[in-house]
Amino acid sequence: MYCPKCRAEFREGFGVCSDCGVALVEELPPEPTPEYADLVTVLSAADETVVTMAESILIDADIRFLAKGEGVQDLFGLGRIGAGFNPMLGPVEIQVLPEDADEAAALLEQLKDYCPGVPEEDIETVNEGESEE
């Protein structure tokens, strides 16, 4: 038995995935072929806490995203010293598929309310229609 959502395997006798709450199936459908798409930046954040909260919000909303630059913040130069982000790389950008951009931006707008200690210039939400130059 398999979960069609998370693809976890279960022993016989189980009917629902304990993680996803989805009904199990006998065989997994074939893995989808990866599609390549242009991504839209919906958040630029200099604070690591804001990035983590943004990721949590998007995961909870089941919106796929890429945290551009997050994995390499501590690899080059001085790391995150002082600014909260690596000055060689700039702030972390949260990117989503264009069809999810409006919903993601609306959800991430609440970060400004829930992060009162973070300067507002460290949280920049970007709407889908705005150009990124």
Brief write-up:
The chain is α+β, with helices and mostly antiparallel strands. 19% of the residues lie in helices and 14% in strands.
Kindly list the characteristics that best describe this protein.
133 residues, Alpha-Beta Plaits, four-stranded antiparallel β-sheet, 3 helices, elongated, 2 domains
Notes on the protein architecture:
The chain is an alpha+beta fold. It is elongated, with a radius of gyration of 18 Å. A 4-stranded antiparallel sheet has the order 2-3-1-4, with helices on one face. It is 19% helix and 14% strand. The protein has helices at 48-60, 101-108, 111-114, and strands at 40-45, 65-68, 92-96, 123-125. It has 2 domains: 1-31, no CATH class; 40-125, Alpha-Beta Plaits (2-Layer Sandwich). Mean pLDDT is 78; it is low at 128-133.
How are the SSEs placed, and which strands pair?
Blueprint: E1 40-45, H1 48-60, E2 65-68, E3 92-96, H2 101-108, H3 111-114, E4 123-125
Antiparallel strand pairs: 1-3, 1-4, 2-3
* Low-pLDDT ranges: 128-133
| Ends apart, CA distance between termini | 49 Å
Structure classification: alpha+beta
* Range of helix content: 10-25%
Largest sheet: 4 strands, antiparallel
Q: What order do the strands of the largest sheet run in, or round the barrel if closed?
A: 2-3-1-4
Mean pLDDT, to the nearest integer, reads: 78
Return the domain count. 2
CATH topology of the largest domain: Alpha-Beta Plaits
Strand content: 5-15%
| CATH class wording of the largest domain | Alpha Beta
Overall, the morphology is elongated
Using the 3D structure, state the CATH architecture of the largest domain: 2-Layer Sandwich
Number of strands: 4
In sequence order, what are the helices and strands, one letter per element? EHEEHHE
Structure annotation, total helices: 3
- Give the radius of gyration: 18 Å
